[in-house]
Amino acid sequence: MAEEQAGVDEEAQRVFDALDSLVAMEDEGARARAISAFLRQQATVISRLSAIRRNYVLKQRDADVSVRKLAAELRVSPSTIQDIERNWHKGGRGRPRKEEAQGGDNEDGSHN
Q1: Does position 32 have pLDDT exceeding 80, yes or no?
Q2: Which residues share a beta bridge with 111?
Q3: Does residue 62 contact residue 38 with C-beta atoms inside 8 Å?
Q4: How far apart are CA 35 and CA 107, in angstroms?
């Protein structure tokens, strides 16, 4: 397991190193252009990576892997696993409001 995790950490580190190399570019114009190229693609890449992770989480949960065990494996909190399952993202902005989630009052003041 530790050996496998080291490989995962090395892959992630390569990505971080590549990002650091953008920041370290000496030519300011080339650096700005390279960063612009990255930023144009990053939203698409993040969405793709999130979908891959979500598919894994859903597959593991379908196999009755506990939220806590999965959270420990992915090095995230249990609430993050639950958010992934519910397809809530963007720092909670995709979550329903507390009142909506609990069947509270609607916007017009009526109750669910």
Answers
A1: yes
A2: 105
A3: no
A4: 42
